[in-house]
């Protein structure tokens, strides 16, 4: 039981770290720069998602 609790705790910690990194990336990005990137070429799915999230 203790091993499963440890594995679950580490998994939740890693998942939380991932979401914190995503949040930090969205907060640090600037909308005008992303819009300029979208206007230069065919915007990819990640760029469209980032613009929609802001």
Mean pLDDT: 83
**Quick one: overall form?**
elongated
Range of helix content = over 70%
Strand content: under 5%
Provide the gyration radius in Å. Answer: 17 Å
Task: Please characterize this protein's 3D structure.
Helix content is 85%, strand content 0%. By secondary structure, it is an all-alpha fold. Helix 2 (31-40) packs antiparallel against helix 3 (45-53). It has a domain at 19-54. The longest helix has 27 residues, at 2-28.
Considering the chains and any ligands shown, give keywords for the structure.
54 residues, mainly alpha, elongated
In short:
This protein is mostly helical. Helices cover 85% and strands 0% of the residues. It has helices spanning 2-28, 31-40, 45-53.
Secondary structure: elements and pairs:
Layout: H1 2-28, H2 31-40, H3 45-53
């Amino acid at each position: 039981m203790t091993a499963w609790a440890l594995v679950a705790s580490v998994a939740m910690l890693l998942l939380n770290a991932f979401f914190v990194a995503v949040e930090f990336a969205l907060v640090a990005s600037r909308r005008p720069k992303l819009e300029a990137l979208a206007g230069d070429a065919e915007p990819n799915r990640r760029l469209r998602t980032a613009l929609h999230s802001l």
